[in-house]
Specification:
It is built from 30 helices and 12 strands. The protein is mainly alpha-helical. Strand 10 (692-696), helix 29 (700-708) and strand 11 (721-722) form a beta-alpha-beta unit. Helix 6 runs parallel beside helix 9 and helix 10 packs antiparallel against helix 17 (369-385). The longest helix is centred in the C-terminal third of the chain and has 44 residues, at 562-605. It is elongated, with a radius of gyration of 41 Å. The two termini are 19 Å apart. It is a multi-pass membrane protein. One of its GO terms (molecular function) is secondary active sulfate transmembrane transporter activity. The chain crosses the membrane at residues 96-121, 176-198, 241-272, 284-305, 341-361, 373-397, 409-426, 470-499.
């Protein structure tokens, strides 16, 4: 006998009185204790020794984990991992600098300073921060927009000729990239200090994956000019990607054959080498540095064959040795890049925290989302002072760091040391490296993002709404560029949530025989409705956006349109009042007529002359009945009373109406003023129609909203609230009396 069958065979009984909300408060002794806002604020700013120490250590996590670093267990793995990741930083940093439209050496700077800062302040042990393709292309869109080539054209020797001031252009673009990076770091730092780490919750996984896929398309298009050796016009704003593709197609006839050959050979060589590396990964503990080998071979070939002079292949150019002194950001440019900086801050943080949580879950440790914001903010803000561009974490480098034995951020620090050695001694050796090779490295590294198109099929099978979010994010980001595309995608994603709350599932619940369990009657064959009781439930919360639809669904599901019912009742009431008024008028007229007739009879017996002042409708004197002729005035009053009493007052109450309607509010997690008013109107309208309304499953916040919204009064008390559907059903079945009700649940 398995555990499931055994659990089915265990019966239990519960015997208690039916409890409404007031009874529950009394039995459970509800506490009214609340902490005032003043006390909360005072507690938040209170500073004690232990609290200051805890805050300081949480702000600088390095001081917590480094003294307890297990040197024997982790040192070798972190050393090998750090060297491997550092080798990867070299080609990726130089390649992604092209995406940011700055000289390649600044990609190496971005792979050094931010890593050291994150080593001190970061909380993730396994992610590899540094240059990232999506961030680089977003930086590139800013630098090329604010410093286009057209602003740096200088007159040539000929009258109609102009030349491009590359040195001036690159200097300006470096300044722009550093400034927007600094501003994005400030945004991240401020968001972290105000504990705004939850903002990443608005970036769902389908949205992030679609966004990175669309950004990869932007990256590929931006690198085509290096692969074909052409110089297309730079476009900005919505649809700029489309215009760029059209421009590139128009310039294909001017392709530099030498550059194209270098690109094709490099791509084929990289793909083949990566496949061989994947096959050899089972036997070799350290991954083969394919990109490093590629740039070394390409540099040697370019130097030996003089590709720049002989074939016009564009090369990296001068790479200065050493480090640069910090430079203050260009304050005058801050106003023109606020939106771009905020988008960089959100995207960089979203990618880093998503990957960090994956590794934290896998290796059983916690990543502090707010501290990650602070760490990334400091990395970008300080890095911006040293002419770095915005960083995030890379999936490929992080996977290498983990697979080669990296267990802490010591591996990241070692990779920064590798980059430092390259900057000081080796960097100038790569001056003859063709830019087409760097573009090819980018193409091959993006193949993982291109595989994310397969998400469409999997999401179609699992969740079509998420699939729509994926597709729309992809389309919006491709058409509107990464900055506007991100904002539009988040807005669309939030709208899907709103639409889902506006279109919830409405159900009539029935009882599972022999239990206190209630389920939708349309989904179960054995679930039966309770006679005379309608139990209604919505799968979403009740607020202003769906309040009207909630009422319409309630009318439809219960089969009782209260609005029409009350309208019909008012018409009947008006008709009854008209009949009463007409009957009263007629009775008054008849009484007056009979009084005069009685006076005639009395005068006749007294020998007086009768006086006639009125006649009936025929103009004749009215005939007297036998009772009237005998002066039986008492019978006249009885007849008058009988005439008034027999006025029709309307039909009997509709027997098809339910005795009670129970609203299951267990899915409702909050109520706004419109929601409270909706419930109040439902209770009032059904009450006027003779149907009692009960509410059950109300959460504490919902009850408090009802109290603040003046839902309860002298006539409407908490006695209509019940903890469970079954309590409300039993109360309804006992004729609204809780006395002597002792339900027994046997399951």
């Amino acid at each position: 006998m398995n555990v499931r069958d055994l659990r089915k065979r265990v019966p239990y009984q519960i015997q208690r009185d039916v409890l409404d909300e007031l009874s529950v408060d009394q039995v459970a002794e509800k506490s009214d204790f609340k902490i005032s806002t003043k006390e909360k604020l005072r507690d938040a700013v209170r500073c004690t020794g232990p609290r200051f120490k805890s805050c300081f250590l949480s702000f600088v996590p390095l001081l917590t984990w480094l003294p307890r670093y297990p040197f024997r267990e982790n040192a070798i793995g972190d050393l090998i991992s750090g060297i491997s990741v550092g080798i990867m930083h070299l080609p990726q940093g130089m390649a992604y600098a092209l995406l940011a439209a700055v000289p390649p050496v600044f990609g190496l700077y971005s792979s050094f300073y931010p890593i050291l800062i994150y080593f001190i302040f970061g909380t993730s042990k396994h992610i590899s921060v540094g240059t990232y393709a999506v961030m680089s292309v977003m930086i590139g869109s800013v630098t090329e927009r604010l410093a286009p080539d057209s602003d740096f054209m200088i007159p040539g020797n000929d009258t109609n000729s102009t030349t491009l001031d590359i040195i001036g252009r690159d200097a300006e673009r470096v300044k722009i990239a550093a400034t927007v990076t600094f501003l994005s770091g400030i945004f991240q730092l401020l968001l972290g200090l105000v504990r705004f780490g939850f903002v990443v919750t608005y970036l769902s996984e389908p949205l992030v994956r679609a966004y990175t896929t669309a950004a990869a398309i932007h990256v590929i298009v931006s690198q085509l000019k290096y692969s074909f050796g052409i110089s297309p016009q730079r476009y900005s704003g919505p649809l700029s990607l489309i215009y760029t593709v059209i421009e590139i197609c128009a310039l294909l006839g001017k392709t530099n054959i030498g550059t194209l050959v270098v690109s094709i050979v490099t791509i084929l060589g990289l793909v083949a080498a990566k496949e061989l590396s994947a096959l050899a990964a089972r036997k070799i503990p350290v991954p083969i540095p394919v990109e490093l080998i590629t740039i070394i071979v390409a540099t040697v070939v370019s130097w030996q064959m003089d590709l720049k002079t002989e074939y016009g292949v564009e090369v990296v150019g001068q790479i200065p040795s050493g480090l640069q002194a910090p430079v203050a950001p260009a304050v005058s440019l801050l106003g023109s890049m606020v939106g771009d900086a905020f988008a960089l801050a959100v995207v960089g943080y979203g990618i880093a925290i998503s990957l960090g949580r994956i590794f934290a879950l896998k290796y059983a440790y916690k990543v502090d989302s707010n501290q990650e914001l602070i760490a990334l903010g400091l990395s970008n803000a300080i890095g911006g002072l040293f002419n770095c561009f915005a960083i995030s974490c890379s999936m490929s480098r992080s996977m290498v760091q983990v697979s080669t034995g990296g267990k802490s951020q010591v591996a990241g620090a070692i990779s920064a040391v590798v980059i430092l050695v390259i900057l000081l001694k080796i960097g100038e050796l790569f001056e003859e490296l063709p830019k087409a090779v760097l573009a090819a490295i980018i193409y091959v590294n993006l193949h993982g993002m291109m595989k994310q198109f397969g998400d469409i099929c999997s999401l179609w099978r699992t969740n079509k709404v998420d699939m729509v979010v994926w597709v729309m994010t992809m389309i919006l980001t491709v058409l509107l560029n990464p900055d506007l595309g991100l904002a539009a995608s988040i807005a669309f994603s939030i709208l899907t949530v709103v639409f889902r709350t506006q279109l919830p599932k409405y159900s009539i619940l029935g009882q599972v025989p022999g239990t206190d369990i209630y389920r939708p009657v349309e989904e179960y064959h054995q679930v039966k409705e309770i006679p005379g009781i309608m139990i209604f439930r919505s799968s979403a919360t009740l607020y202003f956006a769906n309040a009207e639809m909630y009422i319409d669904a309630l009318y439809e599901k219960t089969g009782v349109d209260v609005a029409k019912l009350l309208s019909h009742k008012k018409k009947l009431e008006a008709k009854r009042l008209r009949k009463e008024k007409k009957a009263a008028k007629k009775a008054k007229k008849e009484a007056k007529k009979r009084a005069k007739e009685a006076s005639v009879v009395s005068a006749f017996y007294q020998g007086e002359e009768p006086q006639f002042s009125e006649t009936d409708d025929s103009g004749e004197e009215p005939e007297l009945s036998h009772a009237e002729a005998n002066g039986d005035v008492n019978k006249l009053s009885v007849k008058e009373s009988k005439d008034v009493a027999t006025v029709e007052v309307g039909p009997d109450p509709d027997s098809t109406l339910p005795q009670a309607i129970i609203l299951d509010l267990s899915p409702v997690n909050f109520l706004d003023t419109v929601g409270v008013k909706t419930l109040r109107n439902i209770y009032k309208d059904y009450g006027e129609a003779g149907v009692q309304v009960y509410l059950c499953g109300c959460q504490r916040g919902v009850v408090e909203s009802m109290e603040k919204g003046d839902f309860f009064n002298e006539k409407v008390t908490k006695s209509i609230l019940f903890s469970s559907v079954h309590d409300a059903v039993l109360y309804s079945q006992q004729g609204n009396s809780k006395e002597n009700v002792n339900p027994v649940f046997t399951i």
